[in-house]
Design goal:
Blueprint (H helix, E strand, L loop, with lengths): L1 H25 L5 H17 L4 H25 L12 H4 L4 E9 L2 E6 L2 E6 L8 E8 L2 E5 L2
Parallel strand pairs: 3-5
Antiparallel strand pairs: 1-2, 1-4, 2-3, 4-5
Helix pairs in contact: 1-2, 2-3
Amino acid sequence: MDSLGQVGFHYTWLALGLILAIAEMAIPGVFLIWMAGAALVTGLVAWAVPIGVPVQIVLFAVLSILAVFSGRRYIARHPVVSADPKMNDRGARVVGETVVVTQAIEGGEGRVKLGDSEWLAKGADAPVGTRLRVAGHDGVVLLVEHP
């Protein structure tokens, strides 16, 4: 009866590996995937070699530690480079664009139109209708200058 429980315990490790892999997809952090791999390897070893549950737990712990540290080292050496680093930085995306003053820039502050939206702007004084160039941004405020 005891050996019957040992035979099926590898399914628990395989299921844990799948659950951890799914959790990594739901909560990405590049951490759980290494533990998922350790659980899957532990399940495969437990299936192929008749080892006890305490040995399986130690094997899982050792594999998890090795996998996490190896994975962190690999990620540090091979960082993921974004295809579009300015994707979530709308202000940086508009640097160099031409804007039109919609509310006169007086005292260094006003409003400009870019595309179909208006932005707060800082720069040299300019009357309504003046075309300026975006030189940068300070949060959601565009820094404008004469072209």
